[in-house]
Design brief:
Elements: H1 3-18, H2 24-34, H3 40-55, H4 57-65, H5 77-92, H6 98-111, H7 118-131, H8 144-152, H9 156-163, H10 168-178, E1 184-188, H11 195-204, E2 208-211, E3 218-222, H12 231-234, E4 238-240, H13 243-252, E5 259-262, H14 269-277, E6 283-288, H15 291-304, E7 309-313, E8 327-333, H16 348-351, H17 354-371, E9 375-385, H18 394-403, E10 406-408, E11 423-424, E12 427-430, H19 432-435, E13 440-447
Helix pairs in contact: 1-2, 1-3, 1-5, 3-5, 4-5, 5-6, 5-7, 6-7, 13-14
Length: 449
């Protein structure tokens, strides 16, 4: 397929994400599945163009606004997105000639029905191409929040929120790490294959395999085409899961005799991990709010060939009388702002609002109020999120301890020496820069006997 068509696909994906608010991973996956005839090179180009443009959206708009009399907030959305993907190519894809970027953008404008605006597109882009090296970013010393916002494309309110929780240099590094392109992290299913055997099996298929940073059964893989084309995946030899997320099961440290409940389990990464580390002997109940979500759990259970998990549709906000004090371990990996996984889902930073975060805090506390009853006296509650926002993490933990008969439990004996320095009393906050993983929060609480 020609590059012009690939650019059109990228433009369509970006329009779905920015206008229709489709999640970036879903928009991209839908297009890739629909166009499976794309070469590996075209798939890589399309993916980079969509993800890269999203990662740098605020910076791209900042650049466009310096060369266009019509500001980005006044432009037609399709013209703006044509300019965005084009400026991304000019600034971040050196292998593409400037003339090709400009010419293809003009063609896109015409194909989208904006023949009269094709000259505008051409003029703006050629001016940017000539002056790209001379563009001045906001001054870091006098305008640090504006600087971070434009340099790393984070809304200013998120920078301001983080400045209330972390120091400036930590936030700057966090922004840098969140804009890096992540590799695919996998967890070896040790009930079916050893990590070494899996590694060799993948390398035999010319897949690049790198050791994980934290766990000996975790790998980072790259240079593959479709995940579903990997034989080891179809045979259930591995599960896609970030290493930071794998630590939930490690910290829970369940026994083979335990009865375990995962209250917001989809797509099933933690549930299936718990099954594997208890050698399929623990009784595990995996719940989520809809049939669509529980179907995802069922698919992974079936593919991984696991047999000790029961899946149920259940809203975690609804009290289940039959579950009161029935579980040795309850996993509460709850809906959150997702500010720790921006490298994987860059659209999160543009779509989440502070009001939404406040609503999420209330939802998290309401769920915790309900599900804490399900833990047996002396049992374990794991509260985790994939965010780095202290309002949803530390503050919720302190609130929970103040209101319920639980005490934090030391988790340092359960993690490797590499992780121990980042453990607090009963919880762990991982930032993206620590181990090249997602940002993640994990706390362990023991219910009073």
């Amino acid at each position: 397929m020609s590059q012009i068509n690939t650019r059109m696909l990228a433009l369509n994906a970006l329009e779905d994400i920015t206008t229709n608010k489709v999640f970036s991973n879903k928009a991209l996956n839908t297009i890739l599945k629909k166009h499976q005839d794309l070469s590996k090179q075209d798939r890589a180009f399309l993916t980079r163009l969509v993800e890269g443009t999203l990662e740098h959206l605020i910076q791209l708009d900042y650049i466009i606004n310096q060369f266009s009399k019509t500001k980005t907030n006044k432009m037609k959305k399709q013209i703006l997105n044509i300019l965005r993907i084009s400026v991304y190519q000019l600034k971040y894809m050196d292998s593409i000639p400037d003339s090709a970027v400009c010419n293809e953008a003009v063609k896109l404008a015409k194909k989208k029905g904006f023949i009269k605006l094709s000259g505008f597109v051409n003029g703006v882009l050629r001016n940017i191409a000539r002056s790209l090296e001379d563009i001045e970013m906001p001054n870091e010393t006098s305008h640090p929040i504006r600087y971070l916002s434009v340099m790393y494309s984070f809304p200013e309110w998120i920078i301001q929120l983080w400045l209330e929780q972390y120091n400036y240099e930590t936030i700057k590094t966090m922004c840098q790490e969140s804009n890096k392109t992540p590799k695919t992290t996998i967890r070896c299913n040790k009930t079916l294959i050893t990590p070494d055997a899996l590694k060799e099996m993948l390398k035999d298929k010319n897949i690049i395999v790198e050791e994980g940073q934290l766990l000996d059964y975790a790998f980072n893989i790259s240079k593959y085409n479709y995940l579903q084309d990997i034989d080891a995946f179809n045979k259930g030899y591995f599960q896609i899961q970030d290493e930071s997320s794998m630590l939930v099961a490690e910290v829970a440290s369940p026994k083979e005799t335990d009865k375990i409940l995962d209250v917001c389990a989809a797509p099933g990464g933690k549930t299936t991990h718990l099954s594997e580390i208890t050698r399929q002997k623990a009784l595990i109940i995996a719940r989520d709010i809809s049939q669509e979500k529980t179907n995802l759990i069922q698919e992974n259970i079936k593919r991984l060939n696991l047999e000790n998990i029961r899946v149920e549709v259940w809203d975690a906000l609804i009290r289940d009388e039959a579950s009161i004090e029935q579980y040795d371990v309850v996993i509460a990996d709850l809906p959150c702002s997702g500010l720790g996984i921006i490298s994987k889902k860059p659209d999160i930073k543009y779509n989440v609002t502070h009001d939404q975060i406040q609503s999420l805090v209330n939802i998290q506390r309401n769920i915790l109020t309900v599900i804490q009853e399900y833990v047996k006296p002396g049992g374990t509650l794991i509260y985790s999120t994939c965010t780095i926002n202290k309002e949803e993490n530390d503050n919720n933990l302190y609130w929970f301890e103040d209101n319920f008969p639980y005490k934090r439990e030391d988790i340092t004996p359960l993690v490797s020496d590499k992780i121990k320095p980042y453990c607090q009393e009963g919880y762990l906050q991982i930032l993206p820069q620590y181990f090249n993983t997602d940002g993640f929060f994990i706390s362990k609480l023991r219910k009073d006997c």
